Fold these 3 entries.
Entry 1:
Amino acid sequence: MSSPAPSSGLHHLELWTADLAVSEPAWHWLMTALGWTAERVDGWDLGRIWRHRDDSYLVLEQSADVRGTRAQRCGPGMNHLALRVRDRALLDEIRAHGPAHGWRELFAERYPHAGGEDHTAWYGEDPEGIEVELVVTG
């Protein structure tokens, strides 16, 4: 008899964008660089999906219900998204190429330890102000 599926872990995260054409290229580059796979949903022109090998997925969707044009991470709600990165070499590569793909580095003067001396990470902001933290683990 198999054991039940765990009740913890990320199923999916949905991010809203004011302009998919502006934000999608940055997210596509980042997620595929991290090894996530892009999926297209036929007939859904205002959304994109990237799936991790653990079957969790990230959705980026342009909705008519979006208010404003920039994320407000200092208000109530999500401050940032943190994702694991396999090693420092990939982190350095993402840092080097991120700006060409629409990412603005945050806390550059403290890279790679802006989160503390025992924490190796890169912090970036997408074209609409959504912050991502990429953490080297293991």
Entry 2:
Amino acid sequence: MSPRWEPNPDIRRGRSVVYTLHAHLVFTPKYRRKVFTDEILTRCEEIMREVCAKANVELREFNGETDHVHLLVHYPPQVKLSALVGSLKGVSAHYLRKEYPDHIKRYLWGERFWSPSYFAASCGGAPLTVIKEYIENQKRPD
């Protein structure tokens, strides 16, 4: 008896594409200041979930420490990752400064909340060595 095929919930379909794209993102506040409390991290996650939902992106995981946050996002190919990052950082900075002005002013000054840089890594799926081997072993047409 053959095993029953289970559909992969990570694979999504569009009009002309089948995809599963995940990225691990890390953002740090300007000067890597220790601005985040548990309450501010919780609010930051809420804001970022809303931004993702509006962009048709799923925020799979969110966590952080006093000086940085981690996100795992599942996004469609039409979403430009750098534009998503800009929206996540811009909208969260706006609301966090507005909702926690006294706390944030103790750690950050000027206009910037986030450092202009960020970390992004593609993730999920098979390891690169497995994909490389799969491609190498594809039969060439005669």
Entry 3:
Amino acid sequence: MKPSAVQPILLIILGALWLLKSTAMLPETSTLLALLLAAAGVVLALLDGVTKSTVVSSPLLIYAGAAIYLYDHYFVRFSHVAAVGMMLLGILLLLARSDRIPERRQPRRRNDTPYSK
């Protein structure tokens, strides 16, 4: 049995991050966090589709990334960011109450062919 590839891959990733940090090519931690949160929101929306939970969580993750970036780089006050976030959450929660938005993603149907038996 082959040994796991997790340790070598982890060493490569950590070495690359260390190199980028030591050469000042790695963005600040707050910028990375903002990008990761926004990317997580986009990926969640793409993977799970439109459901009652993703209608709320995906835009909020994207907003959290944008809020962290604005707070850190443009010195927007936290109270402003929080107030807009509360309004956005309220709007999204009202939107999620719609009957047009499904509870869960519909399972994919298997392609029933005569050869699949």
